[in-house]
Design brief:
This protein is an alpha+beta fold and 263 residues long. The protein is 33% helix and 24% strand.
């Protein structure tokens, strides 16, 4: 058991206790951390428990949606935008969705992303921004930049994105399992006129990424310019290289169909 348990009662107090993150283990839903502790791979010295920090709300401020880091994934099934709700309904199983949090899902170490970071793709497609704190203080940055950085020294406070009418296409390939781990997942979003296309891919590489090459060319095969598939217990890199362009093409086709159906 950790020597010190810290229980902040506000976001400001959580940020103050976290400081630069040195010696702190953040405890959110625990679906990733607790198995690591049970296996002896993690031994927290100071545990920052976020359950009372007021980070568990979803609010709409005008044209901006703000989702607290402690919002459970199950609650995202009723998110203000269809794309996030659609993906959230298929993360893990019911027990995982009720326990796991948004912050834990995106802040998980890169080694866990291929199996657990499913929300990266829709949040990239939505153009989301992450508000976090740590060494150097608070900052807000595009989620693709946050994911590409060192998440182990940042405390996620919330995720924000602009709310406007979107069309989307989402698809994934999953290994049959009680928690349905992703081999790869693709989400594409665009405005009704086809502009502002954004494509996010998760599960295929070390972390979720934005596929700028496909956004520019609309050629699904260009996904391999931005994504470097990995080998893991779920699938081989070679298999992912084969199926990923097909998944991107399927997501783009679903996006086009959504545009037709809602035009």
């Amino acid at each position: 058991m950790p020597a010190d348990v810290l229980l902040p009662t506000s976001a400001d107090e959580a940020a103050s206790l976290y400081g630069d993150g040195a010696g702190i283990t953040v405890v959110a839903g625990g679906t990733i951390l607790l198995p690591e502790i049970a296996a002896g791979r993690e031994s927290p010295e100071r545990a920052l428990m976020l359950h009372r920090a007021g980070l568990d709300t979803i609010r709409v401020d005008g044209d901006r949606v703000v989702i607290g880091a402690m919002v459970p994934i199950a609650a995202l099934a009723d998110a203000p935008d269809r794309v996030l709700a659609e993906v959230a309904r298929h993360v893990g199983d019911g027990e995982i969705r009720r326990t796991a949090t948004l912050g834990g899902n995106i802040a998980a170490p890169a080694a866990a992303d291929a199996q657990r970071g499913d929300l990266g793709a829709p949040l990239i497609a939505l153009g989301a921004r992450v508000r976090s704190t740590g060494a150097g203080g608070e900052r807000i940055e595009p989620i693709e930049e946050f994911l590409a950085g060192d998440r182990t020294v940042r405390l996620v406070l919330d995720v924000q994105y602009d709310r406007f009418e979107r069309r989307f296409g989402a698809t994934s390939l999953r290994r049959r399992h009680a928690q349905s781990y992703s081999i790869a997942a693709v989400v594409a979003c665009a405005r009704p006129d086809g502009g502002d296309l954004r494509i996010g891919v998760s599960g295929a590489g070390p972390t979720a990424v934005r596929c700028r090459a496909v956004e520019q060319s609309r050629d699904a095969s260009d996904v391999l310019i931005d994504v470097d598939p990995i080998d893991d217990a779920v699938a081989s890199a070679a298999y992912r290289r084969t199926v990923l362009p097909k998944l991107v093409r399927e997501a783009l086709d679903k996006l086009a169909l959504d545009e037709l159906e809602r035009s």
